[in-house]
């Protein structure tokens, strides 16, 4: 295993310990609102601090981009970590055990290491570029399902809206598949695509820390990741499709030649 991946695993497990401990006493949790339907807790901040401490102790010259504290270090650094300490905060504060920690390493603009850790299930998803995707040391692959009407997809729509918010562009995608699921944690959606539990994922308006680690998990498990035009601008635009090749093609077809609203 790559030493930088080992460091990321150590950091993710440390964050998981903090999250699990706090989950036992949610009534006394300090919660703040960053925006509509966007919450942050003391656990988010404590987890991110713990991750940063592990990463920057091991690699003091690396930059770190985190959801809660922004960029630390040189934005032009050769290595940059991208972290989401607790993706699924709304689930967490409601006691719904669907959330995870995400850590990715970018080397010269390319994601090379990825960890997604689900502390409630003790599931550790890992990937190194060129070495495959693993779940708790067992290699996993994307789903082999090929028929779109049988596909189960994950989704991240703005707010709590369904696919109607995007009019025909997303409505056709949702209506053509077997079902859409909004888990409330994009990093787990992507990890579940990589593990074959979901056949695909469509996300709108996401951030780099939502996508960086999960994208490598999907790619190394044999899947495809692109923006809504089939290009590689998803990390900047935040609009992403991820799926097995055959399902991906059918998701893309459902969006072609249709207005965005």
TrEMBL record:
GO biological process entries: inositol metabolic process; phosphatidylinositol phosphate biosynthetic process; signal transduction
Catalysis: reaction(s): a myo-inositol phosphate + H2O = myo-inositol + phosphate
Signal sequence bounds: none
Enzyme class: hydrolase
Keywords: Hydrolase, Magnesium, Metal-binding
Cofactor(s) demanded: Mg(2+)
GO molecular function: inositol monophosphate 1-phosphatase activity; metal ion binding
Entry binding sites for Mg(2+): 67, 84, 86-87, 210
EC code(s) of this entry: 3.1.3.25
InterPro entries: IMPase, Inositol_monoP_metal-BS, Inositol_monophosphatase-like, Inositol_monophosphatase_CS, Inositol_monophosphatase_SuhB
Family of the protein in this entry: Belongs to the inositol monophosphatase superfamily.
Protein name stated in the entry: Inositol-1-monophosphatase
Species: Bordetella genomosp. 13
């Amino acid at each position: 295993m790559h030493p930088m991946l080992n460091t990321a695993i150590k950091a993710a497990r440390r964050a998981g310990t903090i999250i699990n401990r706090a989950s036992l006493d949610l009534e006394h949790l300090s919660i703040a609102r960053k925006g509509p339907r966007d919450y942050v807790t003391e656990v988010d901040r404590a987890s991110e601090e713990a991750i940063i401490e592990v990463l920057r102790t091991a690699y003091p010259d690396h930059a770190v981009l985190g959801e809660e504290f922004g960029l630390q270090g040189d934005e032009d650094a050769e290595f940059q970590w991208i972290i989401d300490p607790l993706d699924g905060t709304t689930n967490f504060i409601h006691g719904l055990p669907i959330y995870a920690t995400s850590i990715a390493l970018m080397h010269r603009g390319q994601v090379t290491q990825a960890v997604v850790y689900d502390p409630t299930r003790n599931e550790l998803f890992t990937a190194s570029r060129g070495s495959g995707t693993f779940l708790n040391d067992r290699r996993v692959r994307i789903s082999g399902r090929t028929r779109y009407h049988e596909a189960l997809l994950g989704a991240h729509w703005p707010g709590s809206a369904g696919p109607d918010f995007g009019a025909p562009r997303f409505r056709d995608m949702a209506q053509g598949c077997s079902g859409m699921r909004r888990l409330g944690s994009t990093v787990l959606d992507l990890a579940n695509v990589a593990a074959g539990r979901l056949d695909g994922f469509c996300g709108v308006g996401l951030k780099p820390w939502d996508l960086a680690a999960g994208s490598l998990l999907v790619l190394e498990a044999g899947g495809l990741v692109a923006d809504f035009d089939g290009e590689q601008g998803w990390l900047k635009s935040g609009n992403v499709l991820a799926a097995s090749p055959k399902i991906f093609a059918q998701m893309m077809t459902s969006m072609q030649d249709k207005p965005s609203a």
